[in-house]
Description:
The complex is a heterodimer of chains A (458) and B (257).
Chain A: H1 3-12, H2 22-27, H3 29-34, E1 46-51, H4 55-68, E2 72-78, E3 83-84, H5 90-93, E4 103-104, H6 107-111, E5 116-119, E6 122-126, E7 131-134, E8 139-141, E9 144-147, E10 152-153, H7 163-167, H8 177-191, E11 197-202, H9 212-226, E12 233-237, H10 246-253, E13 261-264, E14 268-273, E15 278-282, E16 288-298, E17 302-303, H11 306-310, E18 326-329, E19 334-335, E20 341-343, E21 348-349, H12 356-374, E22 384-392, E23 398-410, E24 417-422, E25 432-433, H13 439-457
Parallel strand pairs in A: 1-2, 1-9, 2-5, 9-20, 11-12, 11-16, 12-13, 18-21
Antiparallel strand pairs in A: 3-4, 6-7, 7-8, 10-17, 14-15, 15-16, 18-19, 22-23, 23-24, 23-25
Helix pairs in contact in A: 4-12, 4-13
Chain B: E1 6-11, H1 20-25, E2 28-30, E3 35-41, E4 48-51, E5 57-64, E6 69-75, E7 79-87, E8 90-98, E9 103-105, E10 108-112, E11 116-122, E12 130-133, E13 138-143, E14 146-151, E15 155-163, E16 168-176, H2 186-190, H3 194-197, H4 213-224, H5 233-238, H6 243-255
Parallel strand pairs in B: 2-8, 10-16
Antiparallel strand pairs in B: 1-3, 3-6, 4-7, 5-6, 7-8, 9-11, 11-14, 12-15, 13-14, 15-16
Amino acid sequence: xxxxxxxxxxxxxxxxxxxxxxxxxxxxxxxxxxxxxxxxxxxxxxxxxxxxxxxxxxxxxxxxxxxxxxxxxxxxxxxxxxxxxxxxxxxxxxxxxxxxxxxxxxxxxxxxxxxxxxxxxxxxxxxxxxxxxxxxxxxxxxxxxxxxxxxxxxxxxxxxxxxxxxxxxxxxxxxxxxxxxxxxxxxxxxxxxxxxxxxxxxxxxxxxxxxxxxxxxxxxxxxxxxxxxxxxxxxxxxxxxxxxxxxxxxxxxxxxxxxxxxxxxxxxxxxxxxxxxxxxxxxxxxxxxxxxxxxxxxxxxxxxxxxxxxxxxxxxxxxxxxxxxxxxxxxxxxxxxxxxxxxxxxxxxxxxxxxxxxxxxxxxxxxxxxxxxxxxxxxxxxxxxxxxxxxxxxxxxxxxxxxxxxxxxxxxxxxxxxxxxxxxxxxxxxxxxxxxxxxxxxxxxxxxxxxxxxxxxx
Amino acid sequence: xxxxxxxxxxxxxxxxxxxxxxxxxxxxxxxxxxxxxxxxxxxxxxxxxxxxxxxxxxxxxxxxxxxxxxxxxxxxxxxxxxxxxxxxxxxxxxxxxxxxxxxxxxxxxxxxxxxxxxxxxxxxxxxxxxxxxxxxxxxxxxxxxxxxxxxxxxxxxxxxxxxxxxxxxxxxxxxxxxxxxxxxxxxxxxxxxxxxxxxxxxxxxxxxxxxxxxxxxxxxxxxxxxxxxxxxxxxxxxxxxxxxxxxxxxxxxxxxx
Lengths: 458, 257
């Protein structure tokens, strides 16, 4: 599809004489200049099917076409009509953004990059026939299948149904209706419709977005403080300590910005009653405490979706996170369990964090590797990824966290395996963090978010 | 009684006591290529002047009056020599030491952008040293007798001049843009930058596409080495890459429109 055709499609879908399509109008000329033509003469061909249109899947579909050309057929299966960003969703809870600000359409992937975007759910994978079946009744054949389905949430102890998250005690760790519900409950603390403390939990690592829970604690505590709501913010962390940016978060928790966060590490939750909003946990010494919360926000343990398990991609029987997520070769993100199937993003088990920015880079690595594999070429071993994120600490300040990973051959395993290893180049230890929360970082955060989402979906 | 011939030092490259008495007691220090003017007083009759070793100390000029003369001498090479004045009272001498000159080795060096080279100064006189260089191409610092040069921008033979107050030595530095080790995947490595700098470096934070490789590489190396905003997020990123990877990234963006 050439650019003129693309513009015609967009123009036809808009209204009025000056009806430039929203995507162009919203971003002015920036979007058009960022759209690159799909090459036609790469000599690469194949059918790639991607399941999941999040940060990983969206990026992969774009770069397979941008780098692979028109001979690479890309199908993106996604059950939602558009993507809702988890990044920045904490600022919807505090009312600084709306859900609409987190919404990213698949129009550019579909219309410019020529990705076949299919709204459907995957029922199963036939590994022998190399097909997937959809709830629409369709069966789609693939040369290579990439699963980027994100993750799902466990029940907290004492809970019996996932709907409790949707109705009563939202985790809001996947942005959507639960984000809105948590926002609503926070407003009820302010109006007096509910009283008590805001209690949140953090599961043992690994979980999605390592700094995310601490960020949420900060921005909600800041909101309570600036709105004069007399509720404490209590964090029950299953981990022994703040996992990332410890200096910045402990500084904030301690009252540096006015608010205070009651941080309780080594908290093992034994019961959640979503109706009464009570939570029981024990500390390191085994002492048990029960809290009744005004707002109860449990961030549950997470695992790869059932599709990953059903496809045989988990290390069944392994201890720890290996059993919950899919092990992969980080040079290609091809499953170490089932050849021809790749897993990128939060569902995969690597040494990298589960987060959108690095998922974008995993997808680019995967795209490059798949294009090599389609041509019968050897995999690249000089692989670098980076994880970076900005984190709001108040309504006007933010910090950042950044890590660069180098692919290194780990010869202590049999056989030797490639691992993404925190870089030690230049004698520098990764990750690195901002020295302090600043207003400049807050502005940079907005620019980062906009550019990251554009690199993923536009 | 006749007054004895005396020497008076009028000017010299390095500061020395000017009293005649002390002058005779201690050799006058002189650099090669530098001159000193000595006044000779209380001359009896018609004098002759000579150097004990013209290869070390050369008489450049003599201007005589009735009882005095000004003699300009020049250091030729390192060594000792005596300036001799003969009048009716006999032969009088003034000792000179011509110092070995300040030297810097090597006389030239080649560094990659962001790379470092060192020069060693030998300076027996131990006087204060200053550096002069074109700062857009190289950056140089001195610690004691060692000069450290960091390459900043590609250039052939940019001068670095070392002054010790009276003499100067110029060495030359060539800054190269090393070609990346073959096989590095510039496109995939550079795609690490797209999340913040836009797809293909099209912009968001600074636009990178189409900038020159040497400019990008120089900038990345400044971040990686901590020379620029070492606590910032760009330094955090650049520090995580190898030199060859940074170069491959710079080359890739330079190749884009």
